[in-house]
Amino acid sequence: MSEAYGDGSGVIDVAALAAAGESRIRWSHLGDDLAVNVVALEAGEEIPIHVNAEVEVLMVAVAGAGTVALGQDETPIRAGQMLVIAKGVPRGMRAGSERFVYITCHRRREALRPTLRPSPANGG
Fold it and tell me: Cα(65)–Cα(98) distance, rounded to whole angstroms?
């Protein structure tokens, strides 16, 4: 964790993480039992459909808005909302017309690093 976003006691300033930086993974924690990520997608950017067969995932939107593809359905989500994604369900995330920042939290498992790609609607 970068000290610029915490107060040294383990408190993370999520608003500062959402507003700053270039990297897509703004912050990560991989503990003995817990994995947490703060992820930022720029407008129109997406994480392609992938399957996590091992764990349920709590997703909390903290800035902007986007769409979560769950199987054949698309679910809009915006800052202040959260959803639980069941294990084994194909999922993907796409930012709307602005930066979309969200937190994922799940039981620790082997790392899954989905690739990012631009949305076809934005020239990708």
Answer: 7
